[in-house]
Design a protein that fits this description.
Membrane topology: Multi-pass membrane protein
GO biological process, one term: transmembrane transport
Keywords: Cell membrane, Membrane, Transmembrane, Transmembrane helix, Transport
Protein name: ABC transporter permease
Number of strands: 0
Distance between the termini: 51 Å
CATH architecture: Orthogonal Bundle
Order of helices and strands: HHHHHHHHHHHH
Number of helices: 12
CATH class: Mainly Alpha
Pfam families: BPD_transp_1 (PF00528), OppC_N (PF12911)
Structural class: mainly alpha
CATH superfamily: MetI-like
Amino acid sequence: MSETQTTADVDSEPAETSDQQSFLSVFARTVRNDRLALVGTIGLGITIFVAVFGPFVLPHDPTATNLDQMNQAPSFVHPFGTDRYGRDILARVALGARTSLIVAFVGVAVAAGVGVTLGAIAGYYEGLLGEGIMRFADTIFSFPALLLALAMVAIMGQNWYNVIIAVGVVYWPIFARITRGSVLSVKDEEFVQAARSIGESDFRIIGSEILPNITAPIIVQGTISMAVAILLESALSFLGLGVPPPDPSWGRMLADSRQFMTHAPWWTIAPGLAIMFTVLNLNFVGDALRDALDPHQGDEMEATR
């Protein structure tokens, strides 16, 4: 038995490598053939580059005030203009990109970790435990996302960690639903039955046999959830309950610029375009990932349009 298992493990390594290469080649082909996928991939890459390197490369300190340069229009020195404190808006948009991406990525990672774990348990154990988990998920999901996040941050306090926790709590039920449905669709397949027949534990079956075969919808949902999480973080910051100062946030920049929209519109336009640009690109990349990981789903969606 051990010799057979060893041979199977050795044979599975090239298969896994082949699957990874196949996904990368399919994704690359999707990006080449789909203009929106190409735009989204390049645009998201630009956003990540700006978030990582922008604050170090740009000449202006995003938090430094200069009252001699208040509300200056876009110029060569300040391409996006300045705000009422003389701070460079381009530098603040770049640092705000880091804020939004960190909150979205970590928050969605928390949501995926909790949701996938509970969803896998609910799908594998369909009895009282599974039903209880899904009823709890439905209860959380029944609350409006912004209202639930506002309540959580207001109760726990305004800081980075609580905003990330709020994002995770709001979106984990989505991952739980997707994971449970996917587990139900594969739990009775032959490879799962074979794992049971050789005495593998439920934990190992879920982690080693089932989850690797249902990653496609989870990855796609993660990309889409990141886009929605950026909107949620921006809304929280706009209402004054997002990431606290002095860290810039696109939502708070929009809130601070409301009274200057008529005579300093550049202050509003820059963060607004940044939010739209990032969210659209994440959705384009999500569509490309869906087509690469689950082409049948992509064909079905195209047929219904």
